[in-house]
Structures are given as C-alpha cells and as structure tokens.
Amino acid sequence: AALLALPILALAVLPPFGQRMVTLVGIYALMGLGYQIVFGQLGGLNLGQGALFGVGAYAAALAAPMLGALALPVAILSAALPAALAAGPILRLRSHYFALATLALASIVNLVAVHAESLTGGANGLSGFASALPRGAVLLVTVWTCLTAGVLIYAHLFRGRLGDEARLLREAPLMAATLGIDGGRWRLAGFVVGGALAGLAGAFSAAISGVVSPEVTGFSVMVLCLTSVVIGGSRHPMGAVVGALLAVCLPEMLRDFQDA
C-alpha cells in the first residue's frame, strides 16, 4: 500500500517537478534494494555498486537509439556481467580487503568512462538518446512497478529459510559452513543480483536525465546509495525506499540554506 500510494499521489497531485522527484526516489531505492543483499544480508561493504549503476546508465544510452525500451534489459545484463566476472577474485576476500577490491573495480569503471572516448564520449558523455526511452509519467510508473515487484520478491525470499541462512552466514560463517550452507554461492548470487538491480536503476537514471557522463560512475553515487541504506535500514526492503526518500528530498527541502 505504501509503495502504491506515493506514485499514485504524485500522478494525481504533484506538478512535473514533483513527479520527477518521486521517480528519482524510486530509482535510488531500486539501487539501494540491490545493495541491501550484499551489505545488509551478507555483511559485505561493497563499494562498487555505484559504478555498476553507471555501467547500466551507459549501456542504456548506447543501446536506446537501436533498441528503444529494450535497452533496459540490456542495461541489466551489462551490469550483471562485470559483476559476475569480478566476483571470482573479489568474493574470496573478507572485511576491508573486500571493500578495497570493490573500490578498485569502481575506479576501473570510472577510468574507462573517462578515457574510452570513442565509446563513452569521454568527459562530455552521451546525449540525444532519451527520446527512445520511457519518459515522464510512463517512466514514473515503470520505475515504481519494478521497485514494488523487487520489494515484494525480496521480502518473500528473506522471510523464511533464506533469511535464516543469510543471518547465519553474516553472524556465524563457520557454523553456516558446518551446516552445509554454501557461502560462496550465496555471495556470488547476491553480488550479481545486486549489480543487476543497480544496472536497471542506472538505465532509469539515464532516461530521466537524458545525459550520461563519467560522474554517474563516480564515488558520490556510491555515497548516496550507502547513506540511504544505512539511514533507512540495511535489511528490511522498505528501508531502501525510506532512505532514498530522505536522501533525494532533504537536499531539495534544505536548498534555501545552501549559502548558510
């Protein structure tokens, strides 16, 4: 009910700027939902989620002129693939070593975005593709439909046995191993699914902004994702929504105080 109320209210009452803000909340909540799997459920500080968000944005921008709305699933795959390829060496690490390895992955993605000018447009980025992607009210409905489905699936999966296994892997990994719980498979699935959701969120971000530049792979996006999940709650799926709502709306509400 809460997930349905906000987009319906936005379409019925809010002006276009307000609808854009609600769309942004849904986009960052979708990225945060994917981040909760590794960070919240498995306790890994993944600092590469923002970079995978950027990969999805670039993939959508490149594919949209040819594929239109089908660029959205392309963005999902484009973010999930590097997550799966990097998962092998990265997921062998623990604690701050894992965090540093994911930060290195993010740095590599940012360097490619800046220097592969023939593909990414370099510092100028990419533009002129937004007309092929959902926009306005259609984009708002699409984003919140995906978010609602993601929240419901997440809540259903982690309510039962999977939630117990994740809790055991997070709090007592040696005990989980003695019970036959495959932590490696869990971490791989969480890393890839989280990356896929980040890629989808990045594609939606490209659609709403109409421009994709290297900043979308920068660390500021990662900070926004981490902040929203920590503030809203790292394990309950609605925590990603509440955190994104605060992270997107508070800066706008406090804009008048920026010179203070």
Output the keywords.
260 residues, mainly alpha, 2% strand, two-stranded antiparallel ribbon, globular, 2 strands
Overview of the molecule:
By secondary structure, this protein is an all-alpha fold. It contains 12 helices and 2 strands, in the order H-H-H-H-H-H-E-H-H-H-H-E-H-H. Strands 1-2 form a two-stranded antiparallel sheet. Helix 3 (49-67) packs antiparallel against helix 4. The N and C termini lie far apart (39 Å). The model has no long low-confidence stretch (mean pLDDT 90).
User: Can you count the beta strands?
Assistant: 2
What is the first-to-last residue Cα distance? Answer: 39 Å
What general outline do the C-alpha atoms trace? globular
Largest sheet: 2 strands, antiparallel
Helix content: over 70%
What would the average pLDDT be, to the nearest integer? 90
| Helix and strand element order | HHHHHHEHHHHEHH
Strand order of the largest sheet: 1-2
The Cα radius of gyration reads: 18 Å
Strand content: under 5%
Provide the low-confidence segments as ranges: none
Number of helices: 12
Structural class: mainly alpha
